[in-house]
């Protein structure tokens, strides 16, 4: 089968890169700029988990940007990621400006450990960095048989307060994962904006326009040209409700952790040399604290099946459960590979050639 597959159409060209090859390519590029071998491979594995889940704006797509930050001195290559404060079931992690994936890996590891003692825990972090899709981390919590909740302050402000024009909030994602035994994990991963900013960046890279309803300019008119995205504001989900949710996540994942929020937020897309002080948080809960865990799983499955088998609108063939599509896509991409657009391939190969790494064919 090899490590690459190719697909051509009249509009675009994709290379399909199998996950092991993608991980190796990322790791080689990271080690070439000074990231220790074990850290580089852990980051590479977690980056590809974003691609497998379909979060294409958060996986290998981000490698050139990470390399820019590393080369500019914006990332600590040898961070001392440590527990700064502990009180009962609460822990605060100092990420020491390490790569975000390393910080979040430590947060998840800490949460799973703390739950064994307390049944529930809250682990916050500061001085982290962009760490990919939120689903990656709550899925790991769910795979341990636990309920996981993740919140983060985005790495750049792309949203104005409801009714305002100053960009003071980010996409601020929230993800929740509930284990469901042998069934797909019930997993919700959403930005508090209509779309994640990564989708705007993907459209810009591919020379595509973005639809009305994603962004508005300072006069309230739609922005459809992604090259002008810096002039606009992403719209929140659900109008003022999404704005309110984004604000609360800022306070819980950022302010509570002594991380950057609002006017303190650094745009990591333009200031590669500055420390972002990204704030993130994981809440983990053991269902066994509420009774028999297997009975809980069975109740989850019953709810899912009731929804799946419920009556549908005339033009609807299937009712989807959050998370099942991502698991199906991951299985598919593990077999046929991760799609790499021609534009992304060029960016990745340019990055590799500068590092002396063998480019992708």
Structure description:
- The strands form three sheets. Strands 3-4-5-12-6-7-8 form a seven-stranded mixed β-sheet, with helices on both faces. Strands 1-2-13 form a three-stranded antiparallel β-sheet.
- 47% of the residues are buried.
- The two termini are 15 Å apart.
- It contains ten helices and 13 strands.
- Helix 1 packs across helix 2 and helix 4 packs parallel to helix 5.
- A hairpin with a 7-residue loop joins strand 7 and strand 8.
- With 361 residues, the chain is an alpha+beta fold.
- The N terminus is likely disordered.
- The chain is 38% helix and 18% strand.
Q: How many strands?
A: 13
Sequence of secondary-structure elements = EEHHHEEHEHEEEHEEEHEHHEH
Mean pLDDT equals 94
User: Which range does the strand content fall in?
Assistant: 15-25%
Helix content: 25-40%
Radius of gyration: 20 Å
- DSSP helix count? 10
Q: Order of strands across the biggest sheet? A: 3-4-5-12-6-7-8
Distance between the termini: 15 Å
Q: How would you classify the helix and strand content by structural class?
A: alpha+beta
Low-confidence stretches: 1-12
What's the shape? Answer: globular
Largest sheet: 7 strands, mixed
Offer a quick outline of the entry.
The protein has 361 residues and is of the alpha+beta class. It has 10 helices and 13 strands.
């Amino acid at each position: 089968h090899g490590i690459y597959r190719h697909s051509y159409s009249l509009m675009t060209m994709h290379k399909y890169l199998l996950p092991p090859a993608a991980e190796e390519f990322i790791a080689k590029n990271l080690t070439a700029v000074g990231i220790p071998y074990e850290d580089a491979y852990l980051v590479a594995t977690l980056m590809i988990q974003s691609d497998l889940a379909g979060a294409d704006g958060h996986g290998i797509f981000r490698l050139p940007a990470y390399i820019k930050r590393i080369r500019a001195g914006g990332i600590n290559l040898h961070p001392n990621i440590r527990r700064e404060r502990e009180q009962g079931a609460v822990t605060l992690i100092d990420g020491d400006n390490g790569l975000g994936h390393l910080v979040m890996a430590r947060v998840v590891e800490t949460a799973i450990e703390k739950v064994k003692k307390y049944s529930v825990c809250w682990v916050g972090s500061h001085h982290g960095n962009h760490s990919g899709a939120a689903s990656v981390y709550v899925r790991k919590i769910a795979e341990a048989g636990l309920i996981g909740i993740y919140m983060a302050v985005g790495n750049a402000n792309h949203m104005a307060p409801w009714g305002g024009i100053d960009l003071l909030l980010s996409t601020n994602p929230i993800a929740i994962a509930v284990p469901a035994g042998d069934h797909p994990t019930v997993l919700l991963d959403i930005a508090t904006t209509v779309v994640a900013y990564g989708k705007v960046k993907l459209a810009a890279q591919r020379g595509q326009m973005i639809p009305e309803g994603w962004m508005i300019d300072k006069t309230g008119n739609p922005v459809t040209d992604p090259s002008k995205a810096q002039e606009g504001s992403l719209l929140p989900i659900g109008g003022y409700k999404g704005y309110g949710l984004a604000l609360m996540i800022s306070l819980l994942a950022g302010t509570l952790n002594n991380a950057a929020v609002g006017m303190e937020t650094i745009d990591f897309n333009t200031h590669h040399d500055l420390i972002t002080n990204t704030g993130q948080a994981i809440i983990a809960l053991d269902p066994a604290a509420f009774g028999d865990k297997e009975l809980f799983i069975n109740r989850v499955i019953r709810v899912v099946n009731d929804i799946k088998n419920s009556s549908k609108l005339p033009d609807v063939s299937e009712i989807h459960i959050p998370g099942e599509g991502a698991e199906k896509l991951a299985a598919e991409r593990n077999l046929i590979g991760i799609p790499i657009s021609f534009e992304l391939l060029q960016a990745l190969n340019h990055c590799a050639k500068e590092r002396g790494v063998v480019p992708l064919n």
